[in-house]
Amino acid sequence: MRLSGKRAFVTGGRQGIGRGIVDMFMTEGAEVITCGRGPAPDGLDAGWLSLDVSDAQAVNAAVRELGTLDIVVNNAGVQVEKTVVDSTDVDWDLVMGANAKGVFNVCRAVIPQMRAGGSIINIGSISGNVADPSMALYNASKAFVHGLTRSIAVDHGPTVRCNAICPGWIETGMLDAGFDLAKDPTKAKTDALARHAVKRFGKPDDIAAMALWLASDESSFATGQLFTVDGGMTAASPLNPGLF
Amino acid sequence: MTLQGKIALVTGARGGIGRAIVARFLKEGAAVYVADLTPEGSLDKHDDDGSHFVKLDVTKEADAIAAMDHVRSTHGKLDILVNAAGIEIEKTVEETTLEEWNQSFAVNSTGTFLTSKYAIPLMRAAAKSGSSASLINFGSYDGFIADPGLAAYCATKGAVHALTRAMACDHGPEGIRVNAICPGYIDTPMLQSFFEGDGSGGGGGNIETLQKAVRDVHPMRTYGTPTDIANLVNWLAGDEARYASGQLWVLDGGLSAQVQQMKL
């Protein structure tokens, strides 16, 4: 029980990576509150807040009610699969609202309420370091998360630690939406798998395991860093002649 | 003529990238020492281009000393050093013999060290004239992310990157700028050998198909030419780059800016 006695707030815990983190934190003894747009999902044991993180007023009100926190995970995020030229103002508001402003809203509200030794964990992305094609706003929003992560670590270091996890391709609805763009989704998936050193995609639990370490006191000297968990994909060149 | 009056020495100067650098330096008015194992180098031909050939095996300390003595006796200074000599062994760690590993480091890393070591006093002399001296190493995008079956090469280039920053720190105060260029895929004898080699996955397959596939993975849909690299070397060598030091300059047609490309 590595998180006994700790209170955690995880955004976007309905499904995918967020749900994996919520479940693992609870297994390790934390009291967990999560949130999302709409009602609580079935079978969730954690506390639930119906909350859109892009709404600053709503975030401030919800966080006031939460009281003291030890761990905050900014996981809520959306993606729109478009280039810059194809992206609309609505796309900008959606992606930057949730992925960039949402992380800012939550961090601004929670930091004054965090106990000394607290840990903020932001979900960045390998796409914030190198570009996924036709994901322009998403890529940019994740680079924002990386920059904000370092700023919070530097500015609030004595009290809280702040790190980001950069997941690679994790088996979630988001990954399937990416493959659906391919002319031949099955072929695209086979090709993508071949480019992973570990020859599999990630699972939400792979990311939750990193989040657990960053949330625990074992990582008390880790702050301001980006931790990539991608099965070795970005360690390799995008050009792999053996696959052609 | 941005390099008028400057003295330059280029190692690996008869290789694919080296030749393009020499040609550009001559065009820009520099006096150029062409250092290589033979006057022909890897392209097996020699152009009488007005450069001065110096026999230099970069792995031999005596050769480095002799080459710099030659420059000292003629010009008394060196404004520009380009460490372009390099080799690659297309093998994994498990397949690489200790001899191959040592040879990779001897040329790519130790060679950069030795040539720099004996050039720095001459470059310090050049910097006294008022404009900075420029030392340009060859790293690689492989020093950041790995190509399969190139283990020793990747490691030597990582070493060059760190050495570049270290030399920039140590010799910046003396007026010597130190940078590394990190090429991606450039059309050279080394690249063609990679296409044909076992490590490429080409395995004797259709080279044309392989080359097209490699081009298509680049955002610019082509691999680079030695001239592309020479253009950046020329900028870093000249006084326009007087504030540029300690950096690793990736030039790869956008290859390493992207995540592994999904076949869409």
TrEMBL record, chain A:
Record EC number: 1.1.1.100
Extract the InterPro entries matched here: NAD(P)-bd_dom_sf, Sc_DH/Rdtase_CS, SDR_DHRS6-like, SDR_fam
Task: Cite the GO molecular-function annotations of the record.
Answer: 3-oxoacyl-[acyl-carrier-protein] reductase (NADPH) activity
| Metal-binding listed as a keyword | no
The record's PROSITE patterns line, in alphabetical order, gives: ADH_SHORT
Q: Which Pfam families match?
A: adh_short_C2
Query: Does the keyword field hold Oxidoreductase?
Result: yes
Per the UniProt entry, the signal peptide is none
Q: Which UniProt keywords apply?
A: Oxidoreductase
Q: Which family does it belong to?
A: Belongs to the short-chain dehydrogenases/reductases (SDR) family.
**Protein name (Swiss-Prot/TrEMBL):** 3-oxoacyl-[acyl-carrier-protein] reductase FabG
Organism, scientific name? Shimia thalassica
Gene name linked to the record? fabG_12
From TrEMBL, chain B:
Keyword Oxidoreductase listed = yes
Q: Name one Pfam family in it.
A: adh_short_C2
- Name of the top EC class for this enzyme: oxidoreductase
Q: Give the GO terms filed under biological process for this record.
A: fatty acid biosynthetic process
Arranged from A to Z, the UniProt key words for this protein are: Oxidoreductase
| EC number(s) stated in the UniProt entry for this protein | 1.1.1.163
Domain of life per record: Bacteria
GO molecular function terms noted in the UniProt entry: cyclopentanol dehydrogenase activity; quinone binding
Q: Does the keyword Oxidoreductase apply?
A: yes
Annotated CDD domains: SDR_c (cd05233)
What is the similarity comment for this entry?
Answer: Belongs to the short-chain dehydrogenases/reductases (SDR) family.
Q: What is this protein called?
A: Cyclopentanol dehydrogenase
- Organism of provenance: Shimia thalassica
Source lineage: Bacteria, Pseudomonadati, Pseudomonadota, Alphaproteobacteria, Rhodobacterales
